[in-house]
Amino acid sequence: MSDVEQIKAEIKRLSARATAAKMELHDFSEELPKDWDKIPEVAARVHAVFADLAARRAELKRLETT
């Protein structure tokens, strides 16, 4: 499998994780103010998933343009 194919597969997995994280954040926000003290923890998890996804998309773009 080429690097591009591997990154595309990883992006697909990360997209699924990002969607799940987005729903987790949405569900969490609906429960506020319950567990309000967990906002930084939940936000950090969601941020990390989307940061990983953005990094892999940037890597794919770099590979496809070289």
How would you sum up this structure, described in words?
This protein is an all-alpha fold. The chain has one domain (3-65): Helix Hairpins (Orthogonal Bundle), CATH 1.10.287.660. It is 85% helix and 0% strand. The protein is built from two helices and no strands. It has helices at residues 3-31, 39-65. The longest helix has 29 residues, at 3-31.
Can I get a quick summary?
This protein has 66 residues and is mainly alpha-helical. The chain contains 2 helices and no strands. α1 runs antiparallel to α2.
Topology, element by element:
Layout: H1 3-31, H2 39-65
Keywords: Coiled coil, Nitrogen fixation
Family: Belongs to the UPF0437 family.
Pfam family, one: Rop-like
